[in-house]
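Q: Could you fold this chain for me?
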Amino acid sequence: MIPTIRWENNRVCIIDQRKLPQKKEWLVCRSLQDVIAAIREMAIRGAPAIGVAAAMGLALGSQTIKTENYGTFRSKFLKMGQQIKSARPTAVNLRWAVERMIRVVEGMFDRSVEEIKKTIRKESQVILEGDIQINLMIGHNGLGLIPDGATILTHCNAGALATGGYGTALGVIRAAHEAGKDIRVIVDETRPLLQGMRLTAFELMEENIPFTVIVDSAAGYFMRKKMIDLVITGADRIASNGDTANKIGSYQLAVIAKENKIPFYVAAPLSTFDLDLENGALIPIEEREPDEVVSFAGHLLGPEGVDALNPAFDITPAGYISGIITEKGVLKSPYENSIRNILGVKDDRGPKMR
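A: Sure. Below is the predicted structure, expressed as structure tokens.
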């Protein structure tokens, strides 16, 4: 299993995904600002992974707060939380991790600042280890959805590199492979940054799972030819009605899959659900720089001065989703009910603290 992020000598070390697959290089983050830059510049990416990074970044940043006064420490820590929340707007796991760390700090109002710093460092490691265990459970719960002999289409990268380890969508695929099922994976290249070609293909090759890469625009062709049995993607945020934000291109895959009567599954931890949002139209969509579209690896792909639009995510309406695979089971439509039931919500005021 490919490592994503770890503590080393009081530094946060991140496998630099911009360099993969050509180089396995660790990026050493010595400050909160280093972690924020790593998230913004996609040295680390994937909703669960950037949640882990946010927790570790806050623990790292807290070490620079020079005070013994709880109120002063809390105030500065909250400002750090706001800074890292803004690193990428779509993935709700980042906000979830920040709020979890803030709750730890606010629950230790009667402890020394030094003890708080040690505790939030430990909490960030708990979040990392917990994410790996959650992914293992997602893999187990999704296993029954994959028939022996299946060909599975996946989009972008929702593997170990997008999480603390093991993966969500790729975790389900990995679990099927480990169970001895005869499966094959079709990997969308995932323009413009080629996370499928660079990262998912890299992970599958490392695990000796059979796969083939296709261009994004070929997915409909293979679905219509009955060469794909199911689609599994990850998610960056899921609204209370099941509408799901994921890497740009996911929506069109879901539409084509439904047209061809192919199941379309989403694999995500419960921390990806945002019950504050009634539907997917309210999910903020990150707009990235046009340069990512018009050039690659420093080489211009089109005419000089060409403009481009570059939304990083799109919204797949719940009606196109066959099931949402979580660590507590597979959710089915109507998602308004199944999501609230699995989160233990008894009324319309939002989820219980989790």
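A (continued): Residues 111 and 243 are 42 Å apart (CA to CA).
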